[in-house]
Design goal:
This protein is an alpha/beta fold and about 230 residues long. It contains six helices and eleven strands.
Length: about 230
């Protein structure tokens, strides 16, 4: 039986940020059974636009305003944590896996199938940011950690890094697959979003977190803003 994968993505103030192209990109993923899109705290018509673009599609749109103000790292993580929790509430009893996929990132069309094919769960791809002059750097240096050591933008990235095979980490972000059963069993986060989710998956659910370095996830430069995290 083909596993049922629901994809959760978050949206905020995205009405003029390539929203049509982004929705098309996410909705054309193979191996995804349905989509959960959580929108909240927007000061524009993101919610209305998402409803228009997904009419007739298998998309559950959850509107959840946290009312958390400010874009400093602490408030941003609080808002993200509460928003992803709202998405988790929409996971159904027949969902097998949850694919967390940031709405502005680009991934292979068959990303769900490729992550499942590794046989590991939770597992993430390898997010990169293209450089203006060519080449790329590793992108998610805040979320990806191992033994309390952050990954770096440039090779060798981290002592645990392997460019040819899966490797274990303590936490990931950006685009990653986890068991829907863990979500139904109460997996939630309070203030550190994906890092906190990974900590709980390891400590409370006995999971091992993996990365597939061959599955490249791209952060479009036009949608990227440099952020100093906490």
């Amino acid at each position: 039986m083909t596993p049922k994968v629901c994809m959760i993505s978050l949206w905020r103030n995205d009405e003029t940020r390539n929203i049509e192209e982004r929705t098309w990109h996410l909705l054309h993923k193979t191996g995804v059974s349905r989509w959960i899109w959580v929108e909240g705290d927007s000061g524009d018509d993101t919610l209305k636009t998402l409803h228009h673009l997904t009419a007739g599609k298998n998309v559950t749109i959850v509107h959840h305003d946290t009312l958390i103000k400010g874009d400093d790292p602490e408030h941003r993580m609080l808002r993200l944590s509460q928003t992803v929790n709202a998405g988790f509430e929409a996971v159904r009893p027949d969902d097998d896996y949850v694919l967390l996929h940031e709405s502005d990132l680009q991934s292979p069309r068959d990303i769900a199938k490729k992550l499942l094919a590794t046989g590991k769960c939770p597992i993430a791809g390898w997010p990169v940011l293209p450089l203006a002059g060519g080449g790329e750097i590793f992108y998610d240096t805040w979320a990806y950690r191992r033994f309390n050591v952050y990954f770096s933008n440039l090779p060798p990235y981290h002592p645990c890094y392997d460019d040819t095979d899966l490797f274990e980490v303590d936490s990931v972000g950006s685009v990653w697959l986890l068991s829907a059963d863990d979500v139904r069993r109460g997996l939630r986060c309070d203030k550190l979003a994906c890092v906190e989710l990974c900590e709980k998956l390891r400590a409370d659910f006995g999971r091992t977190i993996w990365v597939d370095p061959t599955l490249k996830i791209i952060q479009p430069r036009e949608l990227w803003t440099s952020t100093r995290h906490i």
